[in-house]
Structure formats: C-alpha cells, structure tokens
Write a structure and sequence with these properties.
single chain, alpha+beta, 2 helices, globular
C-alpha cells in the first residue's frame, strides 16, 4: 500500500498544481469588450490599470507590436483583450494616442500602450494589487508614457488613490 501511494504522490501533486493554475487563470481572465485603460497612483507612482482597477504589466521580451508570452505564460499573465476592430479607451491620465491593438487570433486583439502589449496577472485578486511587479525580472508595471517602472517612487506618503477615487496601492 505504501509503495503504491509513493508512486501516485507525484501524479497527485501535478493534478493539484495544474488545477490551481487553471483556476487562477480562469478567475482572472479578462472579458472581451471595450477595454478601458486608466491610471492609479501608489508606491510606483502613476501607473496603468484596467477599467476594473487591476494593474497592467509589460513583459520585457516583447517588442513593439509583438507579444511573446504564449502557452503556459498566458495562464498566469492573461492579455488585456478586446474584440478585433474595437478601439480601447483611455481614462484618467492614460493617453488615448498611445493606445492601440495587435492581432491576437480568434477574432480578438490585444491592447497595447506605446506599441507594447499589456497583460494582467492572475495573482492580483483585487484592484490595486501589484503582485507581479518584478516577477522573473521580466514583468513590470507601466507608467503613463508607456515605460517600465522598476522601482517604487521615493515618496513616503501612505495615501494612494486612483483616477476614479478608489484606493490603490
């Protein structure tokens, strides 16, 4: 019996881990529609967030107009998507002139800012969380100019706010 359990244990671990990843990805997958990119201010300064207040990220291997996050990467870093032909909208301090899209397949487009693809992170469960910042030295929040933000700002204020009055931080 013990020998059988030892052989099954690695399989059980894989099933649990795989199921958890799929559940995380399913819970955070963005809904297609009219994507709004807005801003929020917190310890990384003023950065881009999705319409629901969830932090947006850039992936450093991406090039302008080209997403390189594929396969398993997308389980944890879902693309900010709109239906193909739909123009994303800017709010708060986000610049509408910097918003665009790139083809994502299946009638969808990925939202870009300053030409670079934007992503969400499944471990950010609520607006204002920044759990993906600096992950694998490849994922960073994005400022209003489209640049990566790799360090917290020097201000020590504990007060944070988003462009729509909600908390972020």
């Amino acid at each position: 019996m013990r020998r059988r359990l030892i052989r099954l244990l690695p399989l059980l671990v894989l099933v649990v881990v795989g199921g958890t990843g799929a559940a995380l990805a399913a819970g955070a997958a963005p809904k297609a529609g009219t994507a709004t990119v807005k801003t929020a201010t917190g310890k990384f300064g003023t950065v881009l967030v999705a319409g629901n207040g969830h932090t947006l990220y850039r992936y450093t291997p991406d090039k302008k107009g080209k997403s390189t996050c594929t396969g398993a990467c997308l389980q944890y870093w879902p693309k900010l998507m709109v239906k193909a032909g739909t123009k994303p909208t800017a709010a708060g301090g986000a610049e509408s002139s910097l918003l665009g899209t790139i083809k994502a397949g299946r009638g969808m487009a990925q939202v870009t800012y300053a030409g670079y693809p934007l992503y969400l992170y499944v471990a950010d469960k609520s607006a204002g969380q920044i759990n993906g910042e600096g992950s694998f030295k490849s994922w960073y929040v994005v400022n209003t100019h489209g640049a990566l933000v790799k360090a917290a700002t020097k201000t020590t204020s504990s007060s944070t706010s988003s462009s729509d009055g909600g908390g972020w931080g």
